[in-house]
Amino acid sequence: MSLLITNVGSLVTNDPSHGTGPLGLLADAAVVVEGERIAWVGPAASAPAADERFDAAGRALLPGFVDSHAHLVFAGDRTAEFNARMSGQAYTAGGIRTTVAATRAATDAELDANVLRFVTEALRQGTTTVECKSGYGLTVEDEARALRIAAAHTPETTYLGAHVVAPEFADDPAGYVDLVTGAMLDACAPHARWVDVFCERGAFDGDQARAVLTAGAKRGLLPRVHANQLSYGPGVQLAVELGAASADHCTHLTDEDVAALAGSDTVATLLPGAEFSTRAAYPDARRLLDAGATVALSTDCNPGSSFTTSMAFCLAVAVREMGMTPDEAVHAATAGGARALRRTDVGTLAPGARADLLLLDAPSHVHLAYRPGVPLTAAVWRAGVRAV
Ligand SMILES: [Zn+2]
């Protein structure tokens, strides 16, 4: 079955060979979908015939968002903590333990229903690929359970046993690292594609983070790092040194950190929802882009520090507060996220790519930043299937 989406006012392909600029923009365009894949993109006037036809009515079509950083396996919420923070209290990594207690107490069915709820919520807003981390179990059984549940919803699963030191190991962080790199890793590796660590004061230092990432890599897990969120630190340099796909947060960077990212394949994934929800200073996307680093935007969806599934919200904040142009922000939320997941089949709309499409109720992708907070999703296709 083939589908022609025609009368597209503005098409973002993210493939410069198909249009103008880094977004590969094409006006008066059409797309042909065959099964799960894009078969053709080009001017509407020269589009081939297809079994079915969808009239985009002059609206903008872009690749579905790629949210490369989310923590969706959890129970409970932290409304009170957010409320206190907005009344002046500071954010610390320790709040994670509140969610750990609620998550451990939840049933498999409750956790699965929560993941489904957030994946569906994200899909309605145009997110067609989402990464999902463990990290609220912090026991061998609870971390493996989180990854099993996440793997039912996305192939992009990340083992984050090293989110914070489990409460049982408060006096023995070295013992906890041994667990994370030993029995917990053994139980989790079959269900995960990635290994991650929260490299931060109050969580894990550089040596501990290196031990976690190296152990994961030995089991075939690819590294990514929560780096330089709350303070300067070794996370970014470690990510680059170990060839991590992504260094996430990148809020406090030295010139050396920026240069290391720019000279590497490690994507700088910025998570403005976290700074928004903790009332902290935003990362400087302009500095990273000007240095030549690849930037991704993601939600960091989690109940403590960024409880949003909205890529459009993050994109609008990045434009308003982080020095990104609307084009750069759209690229970062699609192609950038794909790079951060080392995926070539999503984040672009070129022949052969997976047919993940977001049709906006707007004539241009710029409206994602221009009309903040407005639901602009007109239609979503995931792997060629109309999902919204
Ligand atoms: Zn995170």
UniProtKB/TrEMBL annotation:
Fe(3+) binds at residues 69, 71, 226, 300. Keywords: Cytoplasm, Histidine metabolism, Hydrolase, Iron, Metal-binding, Zinc. Zn(2+) binds at residues 69, 71, 226, 300. Residues 61-362 form the Amidohydrolase-related domain. It is found in: Cytoplasm. Binds 1 zinc or iron ion per subunit. Coiled coil: none annotated. The keyword Chaperone does not apply. One of its GO terms (molecular function) is imidazolonepropionase activity. The keyword Cell membrane does not apply. Its cofactor is Zn(2+); Fe(3+). 4-imidazolone-5-propanoate binds at residues 78, 136, 163, 229, 305. SUPFAM superfamilies: Composite domain of metallo-dependent hydrolases, Metallo-dependent hydrolases. N-formimidoyl-L-glutamate binds at residues 136, 302, 304. Pathway: Amino-acid degradation; L-histidine degradation into L-glutamate; N-formimidoyl-L-glutamate from L-histidine: step 3/3. It catalyses: 4-imidazolone-5-propanoate + H2O = N-formimidoyl-L-glutamate. It comes from the Bacteria. Its EC number is 3.5.2.7. HAMAP family: HutI. NCBIfam families: hutI (TIGR01224). Catalyzes the hydrolytic cleavage of the carbon-nitrogen bond in imidazolone-5-propanoate to yield N-formimidoyl-L-glutamate. It is the third step in the universal histidine degradation pathway. Belongs to the metallo-dependent hydrolases superfamily. HutI family. This is Imidazolonepropionase. It comes from Kitasatospora paracochleata. The gene is hutI.
